């Protein structure tokens, strides 16, 4: 991922590419972001969250705190030996020795509607937090943080960039270029969380990787073009593109390590955090896709409300591609 993103990012330093092809690639990546979030990441996160409640490999005592109180609730049951049936038997045995009502309540599940309400709350909250994070990044960072996806350099001038809302004879301040770079690095880091969370879900990993790569490659290219236009040296450009390219793999590895330290794959705690991070990533994907689609629409010449057919077709193909790739295990 680092190598692919970095090589795509430094292309403007050496080659002159067709603007139309770059637009089509960007449109395909946007469609993949939408399709991956709606078809792959969010459904898988919801399924993982609800599977904790019904799994026969995890005891009732371990499951219920995560459904009703969240991941910080204490657990003491052994997931490898506690089945639902054995847990209920232990409850009956405990009732004979302990104060009947208190011991029964320790293992008895709360009313079914509390499970659903609690789980629904975590689904919505995780999606919302991911969406809000990207919104805050846009507001705190540069106002042109997403412009890299919507406007690529013209064929006659690799260093030109129409998407900056300023006159062509004015240069962006240095702090604004730094804000653009920081904003893109944080965006890429959020993508890495999705990849790291999907590492425990083999059927997700490839699809998430493809979606991120098709999104990051045009992003790195656009970042390089903006920095080149504003007069930064080639060494500085390479360094910033390298930082951007390394952000997603770094956060993916950190997320994977974090999930590994939380617990073994398959335990309630690990499953809970995997599901929450997948849903959080789905929220970030939805925001980025929504924002870059708006930028793509506004970047056409004349700022018309309609996109060319090639662009529309590329977006739709990207949206439905995850469904085709998911047919093997749906």
TrEMBL record:
GO biological process per UniProt: zinc ion transport
Main subcellular location of this protein, as a coarse class: membrane
Presence of the UniProt keyword Transmembrane in the record: yes
GO cellular component annotations of the record: Golgi membrane
TM region positions: 22-42, 122-142, 206-228, 240-259, 271-290, 311-329
Top-level taxon in the UniProt lineage: Eukaryota
Membrane topology, record value: Multi-pass membrane protein
Entries under InterPro entries matching the protein: ZIP, ZIP9
GO molecular function: metal ion transmembrane transporter activity
Location of this chain's protein in the cell: Endomembrane system; Golgi apparatus membrane
Keywords: Golgi apparatus, Membrane, Transmembrane, Transmembrane helix
Protein known as: 9661_t:CDS:1
Organism: Paraglomus occultum
Lineage, highest ranks first: Eukaryota, Fungi, Fungi incertae sedis, Mucoromycota, Glomeromycotina
């Amino acid at each position: 991922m680092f190598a692919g993103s970095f090589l795509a990012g430094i292309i403007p330093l050496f080659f002159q590419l067709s603007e139309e092809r770059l637009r089509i690639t960007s449109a395909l990546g946007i469609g993949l972001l939408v399709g991956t979030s709606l078809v792959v990441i969010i459904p898988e996160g919801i399924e993982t969250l609800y599977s904790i409640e019904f799994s026969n490999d995890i005891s009732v005592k371990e499951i219920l705190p995560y459904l009703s109180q969240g991941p910080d609730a204490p657990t003491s049951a052994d997931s490898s030996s506690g089945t639902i049936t054995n847990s209920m038997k232990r409850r009956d045995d405990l009732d004979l020795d302990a104060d009947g009502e208190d011991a029964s309540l320790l293992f008895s599940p709360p009313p079914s509607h509390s499970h659903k309400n609690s789980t629904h709350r975590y689904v919505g909250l995780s999606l919302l937090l991911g969406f809000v994070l990207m919104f805050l990044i846009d507001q705190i960072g540069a106002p042109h943080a997403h412009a890299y996806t919507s406007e690529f350099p013209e064929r006659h001038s690799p260093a030109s960039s129409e998407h900056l809302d300023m006159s062509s004879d004015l240069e962006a301040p240095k702090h604004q270029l730094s804000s653009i770079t920081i904003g893109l690095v944080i965006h890429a880091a959020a993508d890495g969380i999705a990849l790291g969370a999907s590492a425990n879900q083999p059927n997700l990993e490839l699809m998430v990787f493809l979606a991120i790569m098709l999104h990051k490659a045009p992003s790195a290219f656009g970042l390089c073009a903006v920095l080149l236009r504003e007069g930064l040296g080639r060494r500085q450009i390479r360094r910033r593109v390298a930082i951007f390219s390394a952000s997603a793999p770094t956060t993916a590895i950190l997320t994977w390590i974090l999930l590994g330290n939380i617990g073994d794959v398959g335990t309630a705690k690990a499953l809970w955090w995997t599901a929450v991070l997948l849903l959080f990533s789905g929220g970030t994907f939805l925001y980025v896709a929504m924002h870059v689609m708006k930028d793509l629409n506004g970047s056409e010449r004349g700022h018309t409300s309609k996109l060319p057919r090639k662009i529309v077709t590329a977006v739709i193909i990207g949206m439905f591609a995850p469904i085709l790739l998911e047919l093997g295990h749906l």
